[in-house]
Amino acid sequence: MGDDYPTLFRSEEMSLMQFLIPTEVAHDTVAELGELGNVQFKDLNPTVNPFQRSFVGEIRRTDEMARRVRFFESQIQKEKDVVPIRPLYDSAPLVTVGPSAAHNIDGLDVTLAGHETRLGQMNDSYKTLSERTRELVEARHVLRETAVFFEKAETQQTDIRTSFDDSSAPLLQHDDREQQYLSSVQFDLEFVAGTIDRTRISTFERVLWRVLRGNLYMNHTDITEPFVDPATGTETRKNVFIIFAHGDALLAKIRKVAESMGATLYPIDANADKRSDSLREVTARLEDLETVLYNTGLNRRSELLRIGENLARWQDVVRKEKAIYETMNLFNYDVRRKTLVAEGWVPTRDFAMIHMALRHATEESGTSVVPILQELHTSKTPPTFTRTNKFSEGFQTIMDAYGIATYQEVNPGLFAIVTFPFLFAVMFGDIGHGLIIFFAALYMIFQEKKWARQELNEIVGQFFYGRYIILLMGMFSVYTGLMYNDIFSKSLHIWHSGWDFPEPASNGASYAVSNGHMYPFGVDPAWHGADNGLMFTNSYKMKMSIVLGVIHMTFALCLQLPNHIKFKRPLDIYANFIPQMIFLQSIFGYLVVCILYKWSIDWSTRDTEPPSLLNMLIAMILSPGKVDATAQLYRGQGFIQVVLLLLAVVCVPWMLCMKPYFQWKEMQMIQGQGYVGLGHRNGGPRESTDEVLENEEEGNGRAIVEEMEEEHEQHDFSEVVIHQIIHTIEFCLGCISHTASYLRLWALSLAHAQLSEVLWSMTIEKFLGLSGIFGTIALVMVVVFWFSATVFILCLMEGLSAFLHALRLHWVEANSKHYQGEGYLFMPLSFAKLDEKE
Amino acid sequence: MEGLFFNVNNGFLEGIVRGYKSGTLTQSHYASLTQCETLEDFKTQLSATDYGNFLANEPSPLSTATIADKATQTLVDQFNFLRSNSVEPLSKFLDYITYGYMIDNVVLLITGTLHERDTHELLERCHPLGIFDTMPALCVATNVEELYQSVLVETPLAPYFRDCLSAADLDDMNIEIIRNTVYKAYLEDFYNYVSTIGSTTAEVMHSILAFEADRRTMNITINSFDTELTKEQRAKLFPAIGRLFPAGNNALAKADDIDQVRQVCENVGEYRSFFDNSGSAQANGDLGDFGVAAQLEDRFFRMEVHLNKLAFLQQFQYGVFYSYVKLKEQEIRNITWIAECIAQDARDRIHDFIPIF
Description:
The structure holds two protein chains of two kinds. Chain A is an alpha+beta fold. Chain A has 25 helices and 13 strands. In chain A, strands 1, 2, 9, 10 and 11 form a five-stranded antiparallel beta sheet that branches. Chain B has helices spanning 2-22, 27-34, 39-46, 64-85, 90-114, 119-125, 144-150, 158-161, 172-195, 199-224, 231-237, 247-254, 258-266, 278-284, 288-311, 319-343. Residues 279-287 of chain B have low confidence and may be disordered.
């Protein structure tokens, strides 16, 4: 049953369970297991088409229900006044398990269909009504606007006439009579009036002009208010047009063109009285229609309100039902089609809970047949399931992004909780900046409950997800900041400094004199501002990063050990772990020892100069045994270095040959005993207790398991050799390049310190001396600028870059030492996760 | 050199179109589609492909027309995305693709008006890629002159119509002649245009357009047997491009029956297979010329698909855009065919579609 408490050290122990569920409780059982969220079901019919599975009908029905619910949702969203949707926890529960489940679901289906038809009818009538209203409104506009045209035309008529008649002199004598005639009938030109989409007006005009060869007089004006389509809510803008032309053929053509271009034509009388009559009539009808329309709208709204009451619940139910049936589609029927056979991965620890759930489901559904649960033996690798909480989740995600841990492998996510923020902080060491991100993370943690519920945008969401990582990063940065004695690039002076600066000498330089104090913690503030301060921190941070790097790599290498012990691979301990450890320690471990030793010596009292460790390392490899007397660190150095180098050199063939050799020997031994690999194993030893029954049922389960078994890797000898060669080369070269890679700790921390110093000296420092009111105002402004630059450039940008480098150090430098990461994630059926996905 | 700067303006869109292309249905998709029992299954099956949820919000009794419409809509959306993100000369090239559909729409509208169909119904049946602003006004025209003067003069099709202005009245025969004349002009123009936009594009597009032209030539020839169309008129309708041009075209202009067409096609290696089985088909007697033509059409489609697939083997050219549209069109035809077969329960013919990949 594994350990007593769930741990991050290894992923959970998983078992493959077979569920034999009577058909009548299948739905409720799956619902219960979905609430529990602890079982990952396997697809037992991978060859069956999605639409040939057992529960397609139910899925289709839920799809239809989901479509209706979506329809309601879109209708509610389109509604201009907000329709409240009662949140899920507040709405009435709908029982979907137990004996009344089928009834309830049927009821829901009917309710949804009813609402849909009602809403559809209302939409239709609303649409027709608003269509008619729109027509009437358009008609009113046409009447009004044409009236304007006519009035204008009347005032200009005389001019038009005279100008016409100028060219036709013989008609002049009839002028008076014609005038009278005209004023009585008003107009003898025929015309077409209507409305058309504003975007089309120019095309319309062009086409008409061409069709009629210019024999027309067209006038149009804009209708100021837009028409809103009730169904889609889009706005269209229209124009009123009136076209005068002569002759029936032309008018017919105009009508045809207008209709095909989507214009609406309205019959308008040339007579002004009739026009005003119809205007009155239109207005009256419009008023009636608007009342009806208003009432319909009210009805529709109350329907939507009723829907809004339950919408969240319906969405929830439909989503769950769909998930349940999709899961049930993964199941297999037994021979008599009475029970469903399901297989799934289950955390071994949660057996009891699942038993409880199954029993509960049976009780709920009111039958006495309990689903049977039994463990299957399989050679398939179980999924990796690491239990995380909100604190460890972020760190685990960082490691999962590199690769999901192989089943039961040592999980680097656990150690990342400390090492990740620490390596970050080494690069980001500044008390001030650390405090800023610490408080930012703290703020997010206090807002946790509120923010977790609402939807955050992508960037904020990312930061929020990593809030605990940021919190630790901030804390660690404060610590390393204290170590570096850096706060916004200034230093803290807490204890007595170990150095005094006497009066400057004649050339303005002052040499510090030791006063016997020892600064107890971190870097002595006297270094700050000293001419050789940079040189000191440079050398200090560089060496420190090597020390940290070697420690980190050694630690990562050691994590191999529990893996090898757990999976019973003693050969890997002797053939991989030990030589690798010796190789790493004999070169780089030795370097670290030398660094520490060199630090511990007071070189001012020695008669030799401090030797360069870099040159020492190079000389150790290039000219073994010879140590320059001036660059000697300690006595017997040459001999020790030769021994270490030999150790390292021996490790290479050791790593290269031992494992392949032993595997080859093992193979020889097996073949010598007369076994020949079949390349295919039978699915585990069978327990033969109750043969007849078990063989039938188990056989069913087994057959499926075997069918899905992945092809086992052929243990080819050449493959082992090649793999080992690659592994050895990778490790040996990796040791060197990875150690060098840790120098990024030094580079980034130096860059960070320099950048913050530059920011300080370029902004605030220049304004500190200014006095007077302007000085103060300038100082305040500069402080604001400095602070925002600190937050955005130093904390956010530099922080991100340090974050990425820390990430790389974990993924590449540490993980490559022990991590296999060949697992796959445990994805249980879980309603809670279903909600997250939406 | 064109390869060097191709990606500056067109790399993104080429990537997009190649991505679209990788979403075309494969043999296994078709295999599972043909197994569907009902259109509901069909919808479930399609939702697992790149078409995604394009039918999700359709109320339940599905019709094949809806499926075809929605599928075309996805193509149109994709095309519009490409078109609105493109710059010269790609945008011009994409416009050229739409001209073919515009010609079809114009002819559809004229024919419809001639037979006094409802204008709005006709407009709905037009291919959405070939819609242009003044299109509705086409239904007013009663002769070609008027058609040209009132509507077409401002569309990109205007130059193609200039050649057939002489045709006096609109009747079915004349409309067919207009369609072919216009299409001939269009193909020739397109052919010339692709020659100006880089050698790779020209190479790819020429082979596709040449086949298109030859296909039209053969179709015109076969369809004009036993009609009023004179041989001189027929010769005028043949596009002056393609692999049969000029000798083959001349021979086809004089052809009197399908055997002569076959002899002409023998001269081009790739076309030889078109008439392979026609002898046996004729032996069946019942099918006669019609059977050959139907079979021929199928083989033309196969050839077209093959050529369009070849276009994707070349980099840095515009042919992929043309080919994608054509392949997708074929795919929509396939989907519609399968859906039709399911709806009408004609399972024995369900495999008569043209697989693309």
